[in-house]
Amino acid sequence: MPDRTDLAALITGHGRVIEMINSGEAGLPVLARLLQVVQPAIGAASTAFVEFAPTGGRVIAATGGAEWAVGRPVSPTDPATVCLLSGPRVRDIRVDRIPGPIGAELVDRGLRRMVAARAEIGGLTVGSLHAFYPDDDDSTAAGQHEVVAYIASCIAHMYSDQSGLPVHGDGPVVAALADGLAVVDRDGRVRLWNPAAAQVTGRSVAESLNRALPFPLPPSGQVLDHRLPDGRWIKITSGELPGPGALRVVTFRDITDQQLRDQDRDLFVAVTSHELRTPVTVIKGYADTLTEHWDSLTEADRRQAARVIGQRANELARLVDRLLTSATEGRPGEPSVPFDLGEALRAAVADLPTDLRRRVVLHVPEGLPKALGSRQSLTTVLTELGTNADKYSAPDTPIEITAGGNERTVSLRVSDRGIGIRPEHVERAFDRFWQGESGDRRGYPGAGLGLYLVRRIVEQQNGWVSLRPREGGGTVAEVRLPRG
């Protein structure tokens, strides 16, 4: 650990982060760059940021020896989580004293001390920043706690701006926002404008008082959905305020996410209708050909028609299974048992479609430890990740599937040399129906369910999955399961 914090490097690096923000960048890329600046400045071996939502947390960014944890869920009932979310905002903690399995995992990786600071807005915890050190000396470098607390406050400010953060739609900042409230007089002038109204509309109290509402006023007792000039949607209701003066009370809230979900649903119906229609049309066409022209077809033609019908039927069955699984929010997982990951991978690769199987290069090291989970579900996981890699990469490039393990987890990686994934999309890619840029839907057809189902399946087995850009181009999808 250094004797003091390198403030010059910290200020220089932080200035570049601010330049990123001023140039229009936001969200995960900015957060990741900020962690990269902080780590060497405070002499940490690694850093990580955990985002918290009402349902729990998730590691969304990390550097150094903590990068393996990106994508890992954090249970709100885990003793370590409860410990971090209570007590002083900044704490110096010996890792071996952290209750639960995560403390042991960090020690196994040579990380023995942690400085943690909560990122808070108005008393609400949006996340926690962690700096890890290999020594367990309780003494700290000058300014170390202050710097970690300062950077945590900077991250909290990013959340208050809601520029690409929170990563998850159910983040606590969004969930805690009250509805906008306005009171208008009989002439339609604003008499009261609460802070939430200013945040929803972007108009301050000073800009709003004694002026007309910046949106239409629905009749009393009715509801109106209105699109603001910046493209966001709000839901507006109004009613008469009892008493003299003929005042009207108006409440409104941001429903942009709901509108996007409705659009996604409409897109999902359109895409799946097309996806279902294609194999059904091919199956019907070949079946009609066999029925009506059996005697005029050669034996080779009949076998080819039967083969195509079988292939398309398999595609149809897989698509229907994905749709049903998605509609029920994932089926309950089977009990976890130890299984041979290498053997399971070889069997799963053998079950892949022929064209995809020819591209796969499988690497399974000797002595690979057993994984704890559901072997049967591994075929689905590998098929979805392999199909995704196949769809977004050239057909003449290999798709590498690599297994590995350490003291705590067993992993598999699916790596391609395709178009890659943008850093700000590595979490959104797991959302249901999401398919990146709108152009991807035209160039890369699909319903946007594969990665969503993979995350559901893996997390049911107490594992986690993450995506990252591959050095030199392409994407790496990594699944980690508990060691059996």
Brief write-up:
This protein is an alpha+beta fold.
Q: Tell how many strands the DSSP assignment holds.
A: 18
Which term fits the overall shape?
flat
How far apart the termini lie comes to: 36 Å
Uncertain spans: 169-177, 438-442
Mean pLDDT: 81
Placed side by side, the strands forming the largest sheet appear as 3-2-1-6-5-4
Q: Give the C-alpha Rg.
A: 27 Å
Largest sheet: 6 strands, antiparallel
Q: How does the helix and strand content classify structurally?
A: alpha+beta
Q: How much of the sequence is in beta strands?
A: 15-25%
Helix content: 25-40%
The DSSP helix count reads 15
GO molecular function, one term: ATP binding
Pfam family, one: PAS
EC number: 2.7.13.3
Protein name: Sensor-like histidine kinase SenX3
Q: What's the SSE blueprint?
A:
Layout (H helix, E strand, L loop, with lengths): L6 H16 L5 H14 L4 E8 L2 E9 L8 E2 L4 H6 L5 E5 L6 H8 L4 E9 L2 E10 L10 H18 L10 H5 L3 E5 L5 E4 L1 H7 L3 H4 L14 E5 L5 E8 L7 E7 L1 H38 L5 H29 L9 E3 L1 H10 L3 H4 L2 E4 L7 E3 L1 H17 L7 E7 L3 E7 L22 H6 L6 H11 L3 E6 L5 E8 L2
Parallel strand pairs: 13-15
Antiparallel strand pairs: 1-2, 1-6, 2-3, 4-5, 5-6, 7-8, 7-11, 9-10, 10-11, 12-14, 15-16, 16-18, 17-18
What does this structure look like?
Keywords: ATP-binding, Kinase, Membrane, Nucleotide-binding, Phosphoprotein, Transferase, Two-component regulatory system. It is an enzyme of class 2 (transferase). It is built from 15 helices and 18 strands. The protein has 484 residues and is α+β, with helices and mostly antiparallel strands. The strands form four sheets. It has a six-stranded antiparallel β-sheet. The two termini are 36 Å apart.
